[in-house]
Write a structure and sequence with these properties.
Blueprint lengths: L14 H20 L9 H18 L4 H7 L1 E2 L26 H4 L8 E2 L2 E2 L3 H19 L15 H10 L12 E5 L1 H18 L6 E6 L4 H8 L3 E6 L10 H10 L3 E7 L11 H16 L5 E5 L8 H11 L9 E6 L11 E6 L2 H12 L7 H16 L1 H29 L2 E4 L8 E6 L5 H8 L1 E2 L1 E2 L9 E5 L9
């Protein structure tokens, strides 16, 4: 009797025997992927994410031991840290560098949930819920009911007031009326582009153009293009430490009078390099000079990684950013709890408009999209804001975890480079963000890196740059030195 189906492959037993089998599956899938011509419709980041998902699924289908799979396939495409998977303890058990406790302390772990062999106490989980009830009572006492429709769409005034007050530590004066909540920073940026474009059209003008420095987080490019903005991408160089200089900004604004928005990541994704206070002051001086010539430009300052680095350095950067008269009022700050506190699933974001009139003009963009954060989310947002205000040691603990993982990942990549000769340069960073940015040797790309090492990164083209570069994240999985 014959059959068209091939016999199932025998699965080797034992971790030592299964790891080579996982490597073989890894090589096979990467090579099959290379044999299919790319149509260019799928973004590079999604290509890699899909490839690693397919690989993990195939390993499950073939019955490989999950422990062998974890050692041979590591998804470093996504930046977000999965707090439940944290297993690092860099010191005394139960001490300030026992990062395994973060899921419990942040209230993410369910009461009794197994955290690497120990049950979560549930104290953080319960504290958040008790605090949410207290926050709701405070809102009702203030005359705001989070359970009914918010006609303004920008969120409750108590939380917006707290976020405005936070800006004072950086020398930024703002009121609750200058703050709007969103479904993460990305949602706020989308609403800002939508609002600015609508305002331009009411004046019978086009939205203009977005100035974007590459490499950089490019979702704003895609969002802006959706609303009719033209794109001006400025490629920075390694000699410039992948940062836009004030000279290049000045020249680009002179040569491109259609630019209406300058997207500025104060600390960069993917490079993990941050602008110095002096560099930020110089950039804002260029913005001021442009306004003096009759070419005003909004500066969309993405603060996603302010808080992942050293606090004194972050404060100096922020004070410099807002220190230039005639330019400071052009700033629109966007921030979130996603990266700073590893709360990506909660989608807490907000925008602060330095210009109160612009803030008022943006209200229709908020009202005409998702209207407002759901009331329950706002209460959780408020509870977390209170938690971090009362327990600043948690903020430092998260920074410590990021520092530890960056150092371990850098060491791991150097060891792999000694074996496989993959990298021209593993770039140093400014002790910030959750990424490493590397230049590949000629002939290497993100697929060959995955095939040889089992580590999936994201190609440089994802960030408007060259695929000679690759970005790795310390998120999701701990770094296992094997």
């Amino acid at each position: 009797m014959t059959t068209s189906q091939s016999a199932p492959r025998a699965v080797p037993t034992g971790l030592g025997a299964q790891r080579p089998a996982v490597r073989e599956a890894r090589r096979d899938l990467v090579r099959r992927h290379r044999s299919v011509p790319a149509d260019g419709a799928e973004p590079p980041i999604r290509v890699m994410a899909r490839l690693i998902t397919d690989l993990e699924r195939e390993c499950v289908d073939r019955g490989f031991d999950p422990a062998a799979v974890r050692l041979e396939i590591v998804n470093r495409t996504i930046g977000d840290v999965n707090v439940r998977l944290i297993d690092e303890c860099d010191g005394e058990e139960g001490g300030p560098r026992d990062y395994r406790l973060l899921a419990d302390e942040l209230g993410i772990a369910l009461p009794g949930e197994d955290l690497h062999g120990r049950p979560a106490s549930g104290k953080g989980y319960q504290w958040l819920r008790d605090r949410m009830a207290d926050e709701e009572r405070d809102l009702l006492d203030a005359g705001y009911d989070p359970r009914i429709y918010d006609i303004q769409g920008v969120g409750n005034p108590l939380l917006r007031g707290r976020l405005a007050a936070d800006m004072a530590r950086w020398g930024v004066s703002a009121t609750a009326e200058q703050v709007a909540l969103g479904l993460g920073a990305g949602d706020c940026i989308d609403k800002i582009f939508r609002g600015l474009a609508a305002s331009a059209r009411r004046r019978n003008e086009s939205p203009g153009a977005l100035l974007f420095a590459a490499p950089g987080f490019n979702m704003p490019e895609l969002q802006a293009e959706t609303y009719g903005y033209r794109l001006h991408r400025v490629h920075t160089t390694a000699e410039e430490r992948f940062k836009l200089t004030d000279e290049r900004l000045t020249r680009h604004l002179r040569e491109n009078p259609d630019v209406t928005v300058f997207y500025l990541t104060v600390t960069n994704n993917p490079t993990s390099l941050a602008y110095t206070p002096g560099e930020l002051t110089a950039l804002m001086e260029a913005v001021r000079r442009s306004a003096d010539r009759g070419h005003p430009v909004h500066v969309l300052a993405d603060l996603a990684y302010i808080g992942t680095g050293r606090p004194d350095e972050d404060e100096a950067r922020m004070r410099a950013l807002s220190s230039v008269p005639g330019a400071a009022d052009r700033l629109i700050y966007v921030n979130s709890f996603s990266k700073t506190f590893s709360l990506t699933g909660d989608r807490f974001g907000w925008a602060v408009f330095a210009d109160a009139d612009l803030s008022a003009a943006m209200r229709p963009s908020w009202m005409n999209s998702v209207s407002c954060l759901p009331g329950e989310w706002q209460l959780r947002f408020m509870a977390y804001h209170t938690l971090f205000a009362r327990r600043p040691e948690l903020v430092e603990k998260i920074r410590g975890l990021y520092r530890l993982r960056r150092a371990r990942l850098r060491a791991q990549l150097r060891l792999l480079d000694e074996e496989h000769h993959l990298f021209e340069n593993i770039h140093t960073d400014d002790d910030a963000t959750i990424y490493l940015w590397c230049r590949l040797k000629a002939g290497e790309d993100c697929f060959s890196v995955l095939e040889k090492t089992g580590i999936a990164g994201i190609p440089g083209s994802t960030f408007g740059y060259s695929d000679d570069y690759i970005r790795f994240s310390v998120g999701i999985h701990p770094v296992v030195m094997d």
